[in-house]
Amino acid sequence: MKITLPAILLSVFFAFTGMSSSAESEAVLILKNRAGQVLFSRPVRIGNSFSIVFIHSLALSRVEEVYEVAGPEEFRLRETIYEDFGAGLPHEESPGQRMEFANGRIRLGGYSTRFDELYLRVGHIADHRLAINGSEIVHLADLERPGGEIRLCVIRGPPEPAACR
Q1: What share of the chain is helix, strand, coil (3-state, %, to 5)?
Q2: What is the DSSP secondary-structure string of 45-56?
Q3: pTM over 0.90, yes/no
Q4: Helix, strand or coil for residue 17?
Q5: Which of 88, 103, 136, 146 has the greatest count of CB atoms below 10 A from its CB?
Q6: Per residue in 154-163, pLDDT tens?
Q7: Closest CA to 111 of 132, 145, 151, 80
Q8: Nearest CA among 80, 73, 69 for reference residue 133
Q9: Which residue, 63, 81, 67, is CA-closest to 29?
Q10: Where are the domains of the chain?
C-alpha cells in the first residue's frame, strides 16, 4: 500500500483538530459559490463549532459569530463576540440571552438560531474567515472574490456536491 504525502498531511490535520476523515464523519461543512461549485469542504462532527470571523465595516473591530453543528443538515448560532458596539451589533440582551464583558470584549450568548444554510457576501473590508473548532482555516476571499456570494451548509458525510441546495 502506497502512502502519499497528502494522505499523511490529512491524517495529521484530522488528528490535530480532533476531526475524523470523511468516511467516519457525521457531517460535512461545505462552502459553495453562487454557481453551486464546492469551494471548500471539511468533515465535522455533531457538536463541533465553527466561526465566521470578520472586521466590522464601521467599527473596524473584530467580530466572531460562533455556530455549532447540531445535525447533518443543521447548525445553530450560539454566540457573538465583539469589541465595540456598532451598526447591526446587539447592544442589549434579548430574553434567554446573556451578555458578558471580559478582556475588552463583549460576548453575547444564549442564541439558538437554527440554520440549514447561510449566505455570505465576501466583504471588501470585512476579511471574512472561517475557523473550525477555534483554528483558522481559510480566508473566504481566497475562495471567492470580494462582493461574491458564498453559501455555507452542513450535509451528511461524505461530501456530495449536489447535496447542498
Answers
A1: 10, 45, 40
A2: -TT-EEEEEEE-
A3: no
A4: helix
A5: 146
A6: 998 765 655 5
A7: 80
A8: 69
A9: 67
A10: 5-163
